[in-house]
Amino acid sequence: MISSIVLFFLLKIIFFENSIYAQEKFEGMIVSINKEIITTYDLSQRIKLALKSLNLEDSISNRDSVRERMLELLILEKIKTIEAKKNNISHTEEELINFTSNIYNFSKDDFNGFKSFLEEEGFDIDILLEQMSSELLWKKFLQKTIASKIIISEQEIQDSFDERTKNKGKYEFDYSEVLFLNDSPKDWKNSKKKMEEFFKLLDKGISFESLSKKFNEVYTMESQTNRWVLEDNIENKTKESLQKMKPGEILSFQDTDGYKVVKLNKKRFYGSSNFKYSFLKLSAFDEEALKKIQKDDINCGMISKTLKDNVELIKFEKILFEEMNKTFRNNLEILDEGEMTSILKAETEFMRLKLCKKEVDNKSAVSKLDIEKKIYTQKFNQMASTLISNLRKNTNIKFFNK
Q1: Which of 38, 74, 125, 192 gives 31 a disulfide partner, CB atoms 3.0 to 4.6 angstroms apart?
Q2: Considering just the CA atoms, what is the radius of gyration of the chain in Å?
């Protein structure tokens, strides 16, 4: 009799614990996407992962700040998975482990160690792998459906190559951007709200680069060479914003399908980075001492030394444009060989620069192969952006308790 009672209570405890675990894993439905369900547990785990990756405390206010972004990304992941599977795209377990190891920077042979680490930190490995699976399927889907449609003709490459040879005086920009898509056409309210949440996270001190990698709604293929883009190859609204910006500045504006946030990293005149400069620098604390020196008083065969009136001469040879400070770049770029600048004020001293030689650095010259890769990347990103935007608009999405 006693053993029967003990057994009854043991079974009850086990059932109770299992039901709590099941309830915790499910909790409640938030969204359905073509019959695929997102639960409160899914969202809670994704929020937890996001806060950990951004080094934010797992607090109520921080959870609130990323909640809408994480929900939108979960929706997009479901859409990506549905579309990929509809087109018979799949992956093996080994492919998923390899993909995850590349994203999270661990050895694929230590996958069990990675799982143990996540479990110790309180993360659900299944939720993370579901996210990785979605991105892997989408990547394979894009490669299959978009890559095969991108056609780049020899004439297109040649035209772009020729264009780059005549673009002196135009700007190139190194910039980052994040697009917040409208949930439906003309639904600017929600996309603006998502953008505002992005700025709140920026205000918490998280870098733009970290946020853009975590919260960008559009899959993009990174350039295989560098991030510099000629102004003629940037769509008008983005270019107009970049032209007004200073390096490090962040601006936002309304785009065709939502809001865009852009950060200007660097800008330069086209082709300037392909040159090496050899020059002389004269410096002194006495401005009058520099005024006495004429350009023919010094020559490029001289070596670094101290001249009369404590004027210091320093010789620089074959310095890349990008490696120089702003004062050097701005003044040397406009000189012809043999010319010298007027007197410049630099912090506690005065200086003059004489340009000895400006030569092309063939190692950094752009090849036709580089141009073809750039054209491919631009077309791929544009088509991927349009595809996910259209899928988001045309998918049957139902929100519960909203």
Answers
A1: 38
A2: 29
**What amino acid occupies position 196?**
E
Q: Are 312 and 283 in contact (CB under 8 A)?
A: yes
Separation between Cα atoms, residue 48 and residue 62, nearest integer Å: 10
What DSSP string describes 15-79?
A: HHHHHHHHHHHH--EEEEETTEEEEHHHHHHHHHHHHHHTT----HHHHHHHHHHHHHHHHHHHH
Topology of domain 169-270+367-399, CATH: Chitinase A; domain 3 (3.10.50)
**Which CATH class, in words, describes the domain spanning 2-145?**
mainly alpha
Q: How far apart are CA 161 and CA 368, in angstroms?
A: 7
How long is the chain? 402
64-196-261 Cα angle (round to 5)? 130
Cα–Cα distance between 274 and 333 in angstroms, integer? 12
For residue 38, the one-letter residue type is I
The answer to whether residues 371 and 160 touch, using CB atoms and an 8 Å cutoff, is: yes
Distance set, CA 365 to CA 214, 223, 271, 287, 370 (Å): 33, 16, 8, 39, 10
3-class state of residue 220 by DSSP: coil
56-98 pLDDT, tens digit per residue, is 889 998 898 889 889 989 999 999 999 999 999 999 999 999 9
**Are residues 270 and 233 in contact, defined by beta-carbon separation less than 8 angstroms?**
no
Evaluate whether 46 touches 131 at the Cβ level (below 8 Å): yes
Q: What is the pLDDT of residues 111-151, one digit of tens each?
A: 889 889 888 888 899 999 999 999 999 999 998 998 888 99
- Whether residue 71 contacts residue 30, with contact meaning beta carbons closer than 8 Å, is answered with yes
* Contact of 195 with 252, CB cutoff 8 Å: yes
As annotated, the residues of the chain forming the CATH 3.10.50.40 domain(s) are 169-270+367-399
Whole-prediction pTM: 0.60
Element (H, E) at 357: strand 349-360
Q: Are 27 and 41 in contact (CB under 8 A)?
A: yes
Q: Strand 312-320 and strand 344-346: pairing?
A: unpaired
Q: Check pLDDT > 70 for residue 168.
A: no
Residue the block writes with tokens 């599977």: 85
